[in-house]
Design goal:
single chain, alpha+beta, Immunoglobulin-like, seven-stranded mixed β-sheet, five-stranded mixed β-sheet, 28 strands, zinc ion binding, hydrolase, alanyl aminopeptidase activity, aminopeptidase
Length: 886
């Protein structure tokens, strides 16, 4: 009864709070780059970054009625009110016919005044656009301007992180995010990538703050009366609207240079002592790109800035990349954590995406495919060709070949519902693979020539795929119609089945190559070069056959029976390959393949066969292969094999020197359920110094209900680590365990240690508490613990609190969620609250607690059996001793 009274008091006070406070806007500011999201994250990002359209296409770049020449933003962010206001001046020239009316994108802006070089007769603000009518038509080619005064409490595009929201005061800052169509939410503009102009930013902030923007800084001054600092930036080369960026606040700065290009690295004072770890490769990446691309870095400087809650990577604004704060890491993770690939991806965009930009979102791969591929090229430059191919392998096997819901969509696709639909594997890893196949077929020199010509011919403009194709055709003298048709304008990739047979009488190798995928209007029959490497003693024979039919048979003369036959030894074809080979042939490939990716493919095949000989070969690779990626995949393969022998091989490798391999071994070991191995797991985890690997050990403990595990997890909650990552891992494992015994521990974390967690980490505590609370009384108590977090100013905490209340499935949560949905000014949070309300009545068929209880009983039986076995063994030894005495 006391709980119910407390609950009614809580609901009443919460509704009062909602009626008098503004609920913080939840951000869609998740980066478009570094395609690394789960399906849930991808769905959220699509909703965030894609402006919903009225139909499913086809969609084309809008017709340009004017040529925008320059945009000037004079703005003042208000950190207390979390509003932005100022004047936007747009210089333009009418195209094709006299201009009577100018329409600009402007979402939820309060527009107070519009002036122009030609007098403005009236303007209309629809909430989505502002339409400006002139006293008389503006002649074609006449240089003109409009100046628009506006202000808003932005729902997107412009974001604040302040102490009032729960962030450290020393880290207070604001930032913008334009891609794909979010600039319109804080200033009026032509918000589509087929328009480029020079830009200018004048920003007024408190005098002790820093302002960073595109281009070069022209100056700064402080108004002694207002104590506001005015900072003036100019981007004097044209770029698209979504690349306009303003960041202001408190930052610590590191400096470097790449030749004569100044490099700035800005991070939050609360974590800046670790910032150098993340930016140590930037200068060498830039030098490599200038050499590889054959073109100097095109802008005045290059800055990188970390931001709170920019959670999906980075955004390649012209000359200033904004990054998630999660890119900062501590040295104790050794070589597991790194920002190098993110750094390389965003820096590549300064040429591919900023200097030359896709004209519309259907050609997004011209931005993202290049940035993804050049990241792999830098890995190859720094660590060797094995690293380049390993990146392509992980992209292919992890993203492209599994396909997904979009497997019937081509890379260039105009029937998207919103722009966010385009930001998937087709633009990123598949686009990268298309470039890799072109480079492989043309050779590095011709490829570089084509790319350089492409950039020079289309410098500072927007492009479509045919213009890239033309560059490759001009450089090579070849036609690439079929190549682009099958890989870019049609969907998918080939499924290839290969059969090999050696004829000792004729001393020939016979090959049969079949394309087994379904061919229809969406997916073509592919044409591709198929290369085979045959090792015959000391000689390796290479043979390439052009495949373009459903089934293709051919013969290759060989001096003796090959001990290795390898398909695509240079890893140049994106395909699902089923090569029907004997175990001996796969063993030969593991032993002799030149590149690590070939040895990895052999490991995968041998693991499926699950023989002792194959396992021994994989164990040897884990112990001694020179490339870390092979050792990582060997550990994963042993984990999948699942045998006691495989586990023994993994245990023997648990002290690998390379932290990446050591983590893979840990991940594989904890995948086994072996109660007798638990003591060893806890001992190794306790001895491990690398927090990333400790996380891996912790993650596997949810299978066990032993008191020793609970004790270890509780101890992990108080173990100090960078950004509390070990405690966060313990919370996740507690949640997966399904055990209500951890509820008091989670409550204690909320009450006494909430400040130690990142917003995402605290969200995990909330979700775990909801999941583990068992019974109505416990759930009511959990509701009292969770509901106040709805008024936390941090978006990740708010979202988690909403979801946690839905997870409780208590009717008592309904009025809280409904009031929240009605009060918030954020559409995304309101929708989340309504979804959580629907979750309250959803019937789950799963019965996890019963399953957990059964598992616990099974473990007790195993302990009893082990004890009985030990007693029996002891009796047998005594009996043997008695017999020997007689």
């Amino acid at each position: 009864m006391k709980s119910m009274i407390a609950l009614f008091c809580l609901v009443g006070s919460f509704l009062t709070v909602l009626s008098f406070s503004t609920v913080t806007v939840a951000e869609e500011a998740q980066c478009m780059c570094r395609y690394c999201e789960t399906a849930a994250q991808l769905a959220a990002r699509r909703a965030a970054f894609g402006v919903e359209l009225e139909d499913d296409g086809p969609h084309y770049a809008p017709v340009r009625m004017v040529d925008v020449q320059h945009i000037k933003l004079d703005i003042t962010p208000d950190f207390k009110a979390r509003t932005i206001g100022g004047t936007t001046t747009i210089h333009f020239v009418p195209l094709r016919k006299p201009l009577e009316v100018l329409t600009l994108d402007a979402v939820d802006l309060n527009i107070t005044s519009v002036k122009g070089s030609t007098p403005v007769s009236e303007f209309e603000n629809s909430g989505k656009n502002v339409t400006i009518a002139f006293d008389e038509p503006i002649e074609v080619g006449k240089e003109s301007w409009v100046a628009i005064e506006h202000n808003c409490e932005p729902k997107g595009g412009f974001y604040f992180r302040t102490p009032e929201m729960g962030y450290p005061a020393e880290d207070m800052h604001c930032w913008t995010q334009g891609e794909s169509h979010y600039a319109r939410q804080w200033f009026p503009c032509f918000d589509y990538p087929n328009e480029k102009s020079t830009t200018e930013v004048i920003c007024h902030v408190p005098s002790d703050m820093t302002v960073i923007s595109n281009g070069k800084k022209l100056g700064e001054s402080v108004d002694l009366d207002t104590q506001l600092k005015t900072v003036h930036w100019l981007q004097d080369k044209p770029h698209v609207n979504y690349l306009i960026c303003v960041v202001a606040g408190y930052f610590d700065k590191l400096e470097d240079s790449a030749g004569d290009i100044p490099l700035g690295f800005y991070s939050q004072p609360s974590i800046s002592e670790h910032a150098a770890n993340s930016f140590r490769d930037t200068a060498s990446i830039m030098k490599f790109y200038q050499k590889e691309i054959g073109m100097a870095y095109p802008w005045h400087k290059y800055d990188q800035v970390t931001l709170w809650d920019f959670i999906a990577g980075g955004m390649e604004n012209t000359s200033i990349t904004t990054l998630t704060i999660n890119t900062i890491f501590s040295k104790d993770t050794e070589n597991i954590k790194q920002s190098r690939r993110l750094d390389a991806h965003e820096l590549a965009h300064q040429w591919f995406g900023d200097y030359v930009t896709c004209e519309d979102w259907s050609h997004l791969w011209l931005n993202e495919g290049f940035a993804t591929y050049y990241t792999h090229l830098y890995e190859g430059e720094k660590f060797g060709r094995d690293a380049l191919l390993y990146g392509l392998y992980t992209d292919a096997t992890g993203r492209v070949l599994p396909g997904g819901n979009n497997d019937k969509r081509p890379i260039v696709w105009k029937r998207y519902t919103n722009a966010g639909d385009q930001f998937d594997y087709r633009a990123y890893p598949k686009g990268s693979w298309v470039l890799h196949m072109l480079r492989s077929q043309l050779g590095e020199d011709l490829y570089r020539e084509a790319v350089k010509n492409y950039l020079e011919e289309h410098a500072l403009t927007t492009v479509t795929t045919p213009e890239l194709q033309a560059a490759f055709e001009e450089a090579s003298g070849r036609t690439f119609d079929r190549f682009f048709d099958q890989w870019v304008y049609h969907a998918r990739h080939p499924d290839v089945k290969i059969r090999y047979r050696y004829d000792p009488k004729l001393s020939v190798a016979k090959f049969t190559v079949e394309q087994t995928h379904k061919v229809d209007d969406d997916v073509m029959l592919f044409a591709f070069p198929a290369t085979f490497a045959m090792k015959c003693g000391d000689e390796t024979i290479l043979h390439t056959e052009e495949i373009e039919d459903t089934k293709h048979e051919f013969y290759v003369s060989v001096p003796s029976k090959p001990e290795m036959v390898q398909f695509d030894p240079e890893y140049t074809l994106l395909a699902n390959v089923d090569f029907d080979k004997s175990q001996e042939m796969w063993l030969g490939e593991l032993e002799n393949a030149e590149y690590g990716v070939g040895r990895i493919l052999a490991i995968e095949a041998l693991a499926k066969k699950k023989t002792n000989k194959g396992m021994e070969a994989i164990q040897k690779a884990l112990e001694s292969d020179p490339f870390f990626g092979v050792r990582v995949q060997a550990a994963k393969a042993l984990g999948k094999m699942g045998s006691d022998e495989a586990l023994a091989a993994l245990n023997a490798a648990s002290e690998q020197e390379d932290a990446r391999v050591r983590q893979a071994v840990a991940d594989a070991i904890v995948g086994f359920y072996r109660p007798e191995n638990l003591e060893d797991i806890l001992a190794v985890a306790a001895a491990e110094k690398n927090p990333a690997i400790v996380d891996s050990w912790i993650s596997g403990l949810s299978k066990y209900s032993d008191d020793s595990v609970a004790e270890y997890l509780r101890a992990s909650l108080t173990k100090e680590s960078f950004r509390n990552q070990i405690a966060e891992a313990a919370v996740e494992t507690m949640s997966r365990s399904g055990s209500s015994q951890f509820v008091p521990d989670l409550v204690e974390q909320l009450e006494n240690h909430a400040d130690a967690y990142t917003p995402r980490g605290l969200g995990k505590v909330l979700r775990a508490l909801a999941k583990l609370s068992d019974g109505d009384e416990a759930k009511l108590q959990a509701l009292q613990q969770i509901a106040p977090s709805l008024n936390d100013g941090r978006p990740d905490v708010q979202k988690a609190a909403i979801a946690a209340l839905g997870d409780l499935k208590l009717e008592e949560a309904r009025p809280i969620l409904q009031s929240y949905a009605d009060a918030t000014n954020d559409d995304e949070l309101s929708k989340a609250a309504k979804n959580a309300i629907a979750q309250l009545t959803k019937d789950d068929n799963a019965q996890p607690r019963e399953l957990i209880e059964l598992r616990k009983q099974m473990q007790e039986l195993e302990k009893s059996n082990k004890s009985l076995a030990e007693k029996l063994e002891d009796l047998e030894k005594k009996l043997e001793a008695t017999k020997s005495e007689q």
